[in-house]
Design a protein that fits this description.
With about 240 residues, this protein is an alpha/beta fold. About 35% of the residues lie in helices and about 20% in strands. The protein has 8 helices and 11 strands.
């Protein structure tokens, strides 16, 4: 394993469900502690880190819309859930000695900073983690798309997608024992095979900006630092010559 990180600056995308741990709802302190420790490890490796955290552990816009809440309103409610998760992660990171700032696409200056691109870059240059909350600030866009957008705006070298498993599979390996795991994929292969890694707009945006998507297990302690330094298990999605 290399002793220096492969990527200078990354965006880490974590689902809200990852913060639930073994619970069926809400925020599990142990799960947040584990993710925060991995982020600290990445910072100690010399990588600048920014994050986007989903809100599905508290409220999911699409589910709310299906239950009768008008879609735009449901999406705004989901954005507020991401702010709650971001504040929880910020508190945990600061407790273990990692400087952190939350920037929200929906201004709420009482609890966090508004999203300002140049300020966010400056925070990372000073070694602080920046958590981007409230998605893009617009309804009808997922936090996956927000992550791809922020990764491009921050000039990130890669976007790390923390999932339930150690890469991209043809099917859910927890329910299908014949599921095939990929070591690498092109953006076009992800789109044409309809692999459920991120939504199509997020993959397309990453492809347009040539930002590799690294899919790894957020539940394996130390996996983030291992993959950053060229080891560990992950699927790399990137441009592959004639394949795209």
């Amino acid at each position: 394993m290399a002793s220096t990180p492969k990527y200078r600056r990354i965006l880490l995308k974590v689902s809200g469900e990852a913060l639930m741990g073994t619970q069926s709802y809400g925020i599990d302190v142990d799960a947040v502690d584990r993710i925060a420790a991995d982020v600290k490890g990445a910072i100690q490796c010399g990588t600048q880190v920014c994050m986007v955290i989903g809100g599905g552990n508290i409220f999911r816009g699409l589910s709310g819309a299906a239950k009768g809440i008008e879609r735009a309103t449901a999406d705004y409610m989901g954005m507020l859930a991401t702010v709650m998760n971001a504040l929880a992660m910020q508190a945990t990171l600061e407790r273990i000695g990692v400087a952190c700032r939350v920037q929200s696409a929906i201004p709420m200056t009482t609890v966090c900073e508004p999203y300002i691109r140049r300020r966010a870059i400056r925070h990372m240059e000073k070694g602080r983690v920046v958590i981007f909350a409230a998605g893009t600030g617009n309804p009808f866009f997922t936090t996956d798309t927000a992550a791809a957008l922020r990764a491009a705006e921050m000039n990130c070298d890669a976007m790390f997608k923390g999932t339930q498993v150690d890469g991209v599979y043809t099917a859910d390996p927890k329910t299908d024992k014949t599921a095939e795991r990929f070591e690498s994929l092109s953006y076009l292969e992800v789109l044409t095979r309809n692999l459920k890694v991120m939504d199509a707009s997020a993959v397309s945006l990453s492809r347009e900006n040539r930002i590799p998507i690294i899919v790894f297990s957020i539940h394996d302690r130390g996996a983030l630092s291992a993959v950053l330094c060229g080891g560990g298990r992950a699927t790399v999605i990137e441009e592959r010559g004639s394949a795209d």
